[in-house]
Amino acid sequence: xxxxxxxxxxxxxxxxxxxxxEALLCDEVREAGxxxxxxxxxxxxxxxxxxxxxxxxxQIRGASRVLARIGAFRAMHLAQLDKRARKFPWADILRPxxxxxxxxxCKASRIYHAGAAAQRIETALREELGVxxxxxxxxxxxxxxxxxxxxxxxxxxxxxxxxxxxxxAVNKAPMRETLAALFLRQCGYDGxxxxxxxxxxxxxxxxxxxxxxAGLLPGRTRxxxxxxxxxxxxxxxxxxxxxxxxxxxxxxFYGADRDAGAIKMSRANAxxxxxxxxxQFATHAISDLMPPEGKPGLVIVNPPYGTRxxxxxxxxxxxxxxxxxxxxxxxxxxxxxxxxxxxxxxATGLPFAPPSAxxxxxxxxxxxFQTKALR
Length: 375
Ligand SMILES: C[S@@+](CC[C@H](N)C(=O)[O-])C[C@H]1O[C@@H](n2cnc3c(N)ncnc32)[C@H](O)[C@@H]1O
Description:
Elements: E1 11-16, H1 22-31, E2 38-40, E3 43-48, H2 50-59, E4 65-74, H3 78-87, E5 100-107, H4 114-129, E6 139-146, E7 149-155, H5 177-186, E8 195-197, H6 204-214, H7 234-241, E9 253-257, H8 260-273, E10 279-283, E11 298-301, H9 309-329, E12 334-339, H10 342-347, E13 359-361, E14 364-370
Parallel strand pairs: 5-6, 8-9, 8-11, 9-10, 11-12
Antiparallel strand pairs: 1-3, 1-4, 2-3, 4-7, 6-7, 12-14, 13-14
Bound molecules: S-adenosylmethionine.
S-adenosylmethionine (SAM) is lined by residues 171, 173-175, 199-202, 204-205, 257-259, 262, 285-286, 302-304, 318.
């Protein structure tokens, strides 16, 4: 992949990151060949044009959405907002036949009423572009008025990017694919070692790891909002999203869970993702887990965690059993454990380094605890 050289037509592209993981996402974006990515609170910015927007949506595993900042103008009061919104070159980017909704936020600005500002922009869009405005529309225009500067972005992703498009079956408390990919990266996983998830649920870590090893692009089977923009070029997009297939690696990726229903889901998800030949799933409890033959790699696991005390007490035994199994059978393997509760991580008895800062997930803050290769 070559570095993208900015041109005068380039604009700012913002990749949304899970809070706290901006630097990790920035590393991924840099490695994917995007020029000069910058980690900022809430995400990563790059400069580019529409092909970079498509490629970021298609290729970046850790971003939850990609916004294109298509323009900005100053607006000190509503009449000025109305006038400038009417002059904005909407037709260069938006299609009159694709309904949209407008979301406005105001901060430290003379225009402070988001509803009134949205109404001015919606009227301009309706009357100048001829587009229908609907609160139910899937296509979203995001307007931020900050310090009297009105910045206009389009959400080019549509559905959140953790929806890869080939996963239908989800267990309770699934890990989001975007977060799973960033945690794998944080564990130093680069697609060249085996991965075991002994409590795999719907198989998120195992399938992500297999896709990375096989060079499969995360967005290869789904649709994106940018396909409905005036700037969309279907032929160029088809070429981008169907690169020459590369042979699957000899590595294998392993998932286990004591819940047979979860394993059925994992298998169905792996099949839809096209990685069936790379994965092995088995139904058994943690106490029956054995390391696969061959060189050691990474154990990554997201065991159950509770929010109630009674629930938590039961979990100490489970974490202790997990730790015991790994300490006695998984010499040479590294461990990454994701949990909301440091005392549960401690109950494993595993030699964890200080954990990463909490990342919001399912209403809790989860942390990644990591070991070096176990002895
Ligand atoms: C938080 S979920 C994992 C979610 C998974 N990362 C995903 O993305 O779908 C925890 C899983 O641990 C499994 N589990 C609980 N106790 C277990 C045990 N003793 N042995 C094996 N699996 C267990 C549960 O069935 C559940 O699927």
